[in-house]
Design brief:
Oligomer: single chain
Number of domains: 1
Helix content: 10-25%
Order of helices and strands: HEEEHEEEEHHEEEEEE
Largest sheet: 13 strands, antiparallel
Length: 275
C-alpha cells in the first residue's frame, strides 16, 4: 500500500513537471522559482482515505518538488500514514540532475526515512554518492540493491520531472510513453508509462474528455516480500486520466485508479493553483 501512494505521487509529478517546463519559458514576475500546487483526495473501497498536496518550484536552472501525503478514515486507523518527500536538483540542456532526495514517513507508528545525496558535478544519471535509510534493509527484510544496479538511476520525483520533459507531447512525441530507471533508496525499479488513448469521464470532480495513461512498476531489486496486511498486495500498476485544465499547458492528472487488494483505490484532483 505504501507503493500505491508513491506511484500516484510520482505519476502526478510527471504531469506537473511538464507544466513547470513550460513555465520556465514564460515571463516571470521575479527571478525566484515559480510554483504549481495540486491537491488530491484518496478513496479506498469507497472510503475517504487520505489526501496528497503536491507542489513544484521551477526556474530555468533549478527545481524543487514537494509531496505531502496523509492517510484518513479507516486506512488512517490501520496504518496512520504520514509522508513528506522532497527533491532538489539542477536543470540543464541534458536533463534534470538531482542534488538530493529526502523522504520522512510514519507508518503504523514507525518512523521511516530515506536520504539520497548526489554529486553536484556528476554526469546525468550517475549513481547516488550517499544513501542512508531507516530501517535498514536487514530490519526491513529486503535485499540490498547492489551499487551497480543503482548506476544510471535517479530519484522518483526527479525521474517523473525528467519524463515530463522528454514525453510532454511536444516535438511529435507521444505523451505517457516512457520507461525510467529509478532507485528510491530501498527499491530499484523502472517506472513505465503507456498512452492508451482518450475517453470521457463523468466525475465525481471532473467531467469531460481526458487522456488515459497506463502506468506500472517493473521490479528490479529491493522489494519486500511481506505486505503489511495479508489481504493487500503491492501495487503493480494503475490508470491515470489527464485533462487540459490550464490553457496552453500540458494536461494535469485528474483521476487515478488501481487495485490494491482491499478494493479499488481512486485519487481525484480537488484543487490547483499556479503562481
Amino acid at each position: 500500500m505504501r507503493t500505491a501512494f508513491k506511484l500516484f505521487v510520482y505519476s502526478v509529478a510527471l504531469s506537473v513537471g511538464g507544466i513547470s517546463v513550460l513555465a520556465a519559458e514564460m515571463p516571470s514576475k521575479s527571478k525566484g522559482l515559480r510554483e504549481l500546487r495540486l491537491t488530491y483526495e484518496i478513496f479506498v473501497g469507497g472510503f475517504h482515505s487520505g489526501h496528497v498536496n503536491l507542489s513544484v518550484h521551477r526556474n530555468s536552472k533549478y527545481y524543487e518538488l514537494f509531496a505531502v501525503t496523509t492517510s484518513m478514515g479507516p486506512i488512517d486507523f490501520l496504518v496512520g500514514f504520514r509522508s513528506y518527500a522532497q527533491s532538489r536538483g539542477e536543470v540543464s540542456e541534458e536533463g534534470f540532475a538531482p542534488y538530493s532526495h529526502h523522504v520522512n514517513n510514519v507508518w503504523t507508528g514507525d518512523i521511516r526515512f530515506v536520504r539520497i545525496d548526489y554529486d553536484k558535478n556528476q554526469e546525468i544519471e550517475a549513481a547516488p554518492v550517499r544513501t542512508v535509510v531507516h530501517p535498514t534493509h536487514e530490519i526491513d527484510e529486503r535485499d540490498l540493491v547492489a551499487f551497480g544496479d543503482r548506476r544510471g538511476t535517479i530519484d522518483p520525483l526527479s525521474a517523473a520531472l525528467r519524463a515530463a520533459h522528454q514525453s510532454d507531447g511536444s516535438n511529435g512525441r507521444t505523451p505517457c510513453n516512457d520507461s525510467i530507471p529509478v532507485f528510491d533508496g530501498r527499491r530499484r525499479y523502472n517506472l513505465n508509462f503507456e498512452d492508451v488513448g482518450s475517453e470521457p469521464i463523468d466525475g465525481p470532480y471532473y467531467d469531460g474528455q481526458a487522456l488515459k495513461c497506463r502506468t506500472s512498476i517493473e521490479r528490479i531489486a529491493g522489494f519486500s516480500g511481506n505486505p503489511f496486511l495479508p489481504q493487500s498486495k503491492d501495487l503493480e500498476g494503475g490508470e491515470i486520466w489527464f485533462a487540459e485544465l490550464v490553457p496552453n499547458f500540458p494536461p494535469i492528472p485528474v483521476r487515478f485508479k488501481a487495485d490494491i487488494g482491499l478494493g479499488n483505490a481512486f485519487v481525484h484532483l480537488m484543487n490547483y493553483e499556479w503562481n
